[in-house]
Structure to design on (881 residues):
């Protein structure tokens, strides 16, 4: 490069900067696009922000007829379904990644991981119809009665069995986030040096003790990162949740009852929003979703070591 | 002279595919390791000396598909006998690796204590004492006694390796295996480790794999020479390095190949 | 020193450390049971996860095969109450949407990726660092934004000014989702190209842009193409961003500026409808979509796997 700079007789001294400039513009475009998404959401959410202020976050009324909008039911539904999803998917996911990285040989672990990655590729709407036609009847007919009979003393497992509802949405979500937890945790665990494993084994540790004392502590941040990534997915998931949550803008006490999430209310009501304020309130929910996913993904990004690829 | 380890017709290979089975890493090794001596294993790289070491504490089978044939007797009892759990064998046969492997998430104290805790020792006072005893044995106590709670990785390379020796000694092994323990260290640190081994041999049986012939000559009482998976010669160190019986041993120690 | 010698090597009852007797067998049994339990639980969890995949796949196929017919691919939806009909318009619609998405996502992702890999960081480490970092961060963020939020954005900047839903708007929304996938893939695989290849080109007196376009990108092409296919696989199943951009249509959509049906949106609408004929059609659509997405995904991953094996 130096030779060109000296002003040698080079025919392409303007071509390289041009090419670089063009690719730079595309890179810049991506940056500006992201900023512009945030900006335009903010602008269009402004009427609702001005009208309702912080009341929007903790009010419980969502009434399009009287134009009273506040988002707590949706915040609650989003959070609770995500928590239910994590509570079921994290233990299963960790056990699977322990199996894949520690207990099974590579010839078995690689194809299984490949199949599990396919689970992440199944479109959300497909999970939705499975949820609607298989999970919902199963919940109403078997799981919810069983839960009510066994741990029904907890208020969240009481009440009529709707089938659709918060618990159903949470369980469907757990199915959808499972592959994210597994593929990243497995890769992080596999990246623990073999010498560390052998060092603890040579002291007379069992395989589980090896996992617990050496592999897990060394991959802790990556594992937590994978959980945050899965959380981000769960918070923003739309179609599957919309199809099974029951779309009820309330804060039900029981997990059996229908609820609503931020993404689901946008999907359901956006095209019906007749007034500017109504639309603006929905966009404000979108803005909240954007900010939450910004934070959660940011945490995941910090925790997951570079070089480990998401599914 | 009591024999602690008795290796009988030991063969080993990696991987289940036919190519590996027809080219074993170890072919019919037999030798016996005497108590409270240092036995050195030398040979060119790829001759199977590390695999030999890893067969003794059943570490070889950690690699999927690895196979072992023959037997190893530890104090007269088969290590590969039916129903013998490698976990118990490894408690009784300590191992130190080529590169220092302190556990980065554990403190110096916990690095030494972890083996004891795994084996069910919970009394704080006993743990404290055994950690101190082990660290004193490797002449590390005075250097680290004020920072036992710092991570094991905060030590220098040579100190880390001594920490690993202390970690192995803490569970009272019957044999100590060392796989090229000084190859990743500077000459000063290597010297300290050698000094330490000479001291330890008074109470431990030691098997050391090394690619450094001078080290074997300086340290060991017995030396075995491995070539292409076979034990070419096994004899007193003084004999191996002065009047070897086999021409190949002579070629190797005089530096004519390898 | 050392352990107590007993008859069987496993029968080592206890050994002493500083006078403290360790009862090996008591402790060992618990450790062994724990180890076996964890192994069993993790095996069961793995089998469970795999059976989820097989269940979803086989159930959709089972439901879909009976509902699928030639009409599904060639006919328009039948009026409510009448049997038969198909989703020909939605299949065409999805293809048109994907075409727009590719037109936007591929060039932006590819060129941005070239910038990050070839002009960001390694060759010019100083000064540009912060910009490159921000672009990567933005791409990660873009990848993580819920797709429904992308839908809102496109609604604001495309649908509102144009005053109607359109294929173009839907395609733009999908294109924005494709961008970060292609960008990450391009950067990652260009970086895998050994720098000796670049230097060889430069040493021949080639211009840098020529080295990049004729040596670096072609060398990395299998990887880049894989990420492009993964991008298509991902957005071909996206529903949420289409709901208020492409909207939907009961007929073929003409041109690019009118609302269009798409396979995933049709599946959604039909599955939540009360008509059993429509539900049948939803299963059929689900089958087509699942096969399409999984085939694209599986094929591209297999290509990548083989390529990786060859270079290592």
């Amino acid at each position: 490069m130096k030779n060109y700079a000296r002003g040698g007789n080079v025919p392409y001294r303007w071509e390289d900067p041009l090419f670089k400039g063009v690719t730079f513009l595309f890179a810049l475009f991506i940056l500006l696009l992201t900023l512009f998404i945030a900006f335009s959401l903010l602008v269009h959410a402004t009427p609702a922000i001005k009208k309702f202020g912080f009341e929007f976050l903790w009010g419980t009324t969502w009434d399009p007829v009287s134009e009273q909008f506040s988002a707590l039911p949706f915040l609650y539904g989003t959070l609770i379904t995500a928590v239910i999803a994590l509570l079921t998917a994290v233990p299963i996911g960790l056990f699977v990644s322990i199996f894949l990285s520690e207990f099974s040989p590579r010839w078995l672990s690689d194809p299984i991981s490949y199949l599990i990655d396919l689970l992440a590729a199944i479109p959300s709407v497909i999970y939705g119809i499975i949820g609607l036609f298989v999970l919902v009847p199963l919940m109403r007919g078997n799981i919810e009665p069983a839960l009510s009979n066994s741990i029904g003393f907890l208020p969240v497992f009481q009440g009529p069995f709707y089938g659709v509802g918060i618990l159903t949405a949470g369980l469907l979500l757990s199915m959808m986030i499972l592959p994210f937890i597994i593929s990243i945790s497995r890769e992080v665990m596999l990246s623990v040096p073999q010498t560390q494993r052998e060092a603890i084994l040579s002291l007379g540790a069992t395989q589980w003790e090896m996992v617990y004392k050496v592999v897990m502590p060394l991959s802790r941040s990556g594992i937590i990162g994978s959980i945050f990534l899965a959380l981000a997915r769960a918070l923003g998931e739309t179609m599957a949740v919309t199809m099974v949550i029951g779309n009820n803008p309330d804060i039900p006490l029981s997990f059996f009852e229908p609820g609503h999430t931020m993404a689901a209310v946008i999907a359901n009501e956006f095209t019906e929003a007749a007034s500017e304020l109504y639309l603006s309130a929905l966009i404000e929910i979108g803005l909240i979703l954007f900010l939450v996913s910004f934070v959660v993904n940011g945490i995941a990004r910090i925790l997951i070591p570079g070089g480990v690829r998401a599914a | 002279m009591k024999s602690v380890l008795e290796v009988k017709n030991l063969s080993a290979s990696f991987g289940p595919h036919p190519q590996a089975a027809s080219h074993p890493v170890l072919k019919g090794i037999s030798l016996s390791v005497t108590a409270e001596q240092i036995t050195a294993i030398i040979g060119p790289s790829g001759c199977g000396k590390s695999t030999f070491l890893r067969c003794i504490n059943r570490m070889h089978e950690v690699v999927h598909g690895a196979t072992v044939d023959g037997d190893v007797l530890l104090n007269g009892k088969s290590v590969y006998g039916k129903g013998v759990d490698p976990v118990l064998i490894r408690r009784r046969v300590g191992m130190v690796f080529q590169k220092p492997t302190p556990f980065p998430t554990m403190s110096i104290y916990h690095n030494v204590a972890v083996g004891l805790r795994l084996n069910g020792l919970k009394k704080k006072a006993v743990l404290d004492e055994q950690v101190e005893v082990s660290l004193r044995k490797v002449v590390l106590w005075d250097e680290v006694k004020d920072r036992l709670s710092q991570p094991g990785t905060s030590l220098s390379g040579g100190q880390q390796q001594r920490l690993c020796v202390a970690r192995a000694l803490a569970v009272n092994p019957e044999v100590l295996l060392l796989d090229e323990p000084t190859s990743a260290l500077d000459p000063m640190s290597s010297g300290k480790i050698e000094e330490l081994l000479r001291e330890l041999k008074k109470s431990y049986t030691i098997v050391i794999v090394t690619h450094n012939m001078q080290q074997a000559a300086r340290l060991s009482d017995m030396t075995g020479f491995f070539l292409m998976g076979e034990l070419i010669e096994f004899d007193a160190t003084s004999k191996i390095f002065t009047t070897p019986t086999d021409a190949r041993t002579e070629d190797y120690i005089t530096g004519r190949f390898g | 020193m050392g352990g107590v010698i007993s008859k069987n090597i496993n029968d080592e009852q206890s050994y002493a450390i500083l006078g403290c007797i360790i009862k090996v067998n008591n402790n060992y049994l618990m450790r062994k049971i724990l180890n076996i339990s964890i192994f069993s639980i993790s095996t069961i969890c793995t089998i469970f996860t795999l059976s989820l995949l097989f269940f979803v796949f086989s159930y959709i196929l089972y439901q879909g095969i009976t509902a699928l017919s030639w009409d599904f691919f060639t006919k328009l939806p039948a009026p409510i109450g009448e049997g038969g009909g198909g989703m020909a318009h939605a299949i065409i619609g999805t293809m048109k949407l994907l075409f727009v998405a590719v037109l936007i996502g591929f060039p932006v992702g590819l060129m941005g990726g070239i910038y990050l890999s070839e002009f960001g960081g390694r060759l010019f480490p100083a000064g540009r660092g912060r910009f490159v970092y921000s672009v990567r961060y933005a791409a990660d963020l873009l990848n993580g934004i819920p797709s429904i939020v992308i839908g809102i954005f496109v609604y604001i900047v495309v649908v509102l000014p144009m005053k109607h839903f359109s294929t173009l708007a839907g395609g733009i929304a999908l294109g924005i989702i494709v961008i970060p996938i292609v960008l990450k893939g391009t950067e990652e695989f260009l970086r895998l190209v050994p720098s000796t290849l670049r230097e060889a080109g430069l040493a021949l007196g080639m211009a840098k842009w020529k080295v990049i376009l004729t040596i670096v990108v072609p060398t990395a092409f299998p990887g880049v193409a894989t990420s492009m296919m993964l991008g298509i696989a991902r957005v071909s199943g996206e529903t949420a961003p289409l709901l208020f951009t492409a909207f939907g249509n009961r007929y073929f959509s003409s041109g690019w500026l009118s609302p269009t049906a798409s396979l995933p949106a049709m599946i959604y609408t039909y599955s939540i409808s009360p008509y059993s004929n429509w539900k049948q059609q939803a299963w059929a659509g689900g089958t087509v979509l699942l096969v399409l997405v999984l085939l694209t995904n599986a094929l591209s991953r297999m290509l990548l796997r083989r390529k990786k094996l060859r270079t290592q």
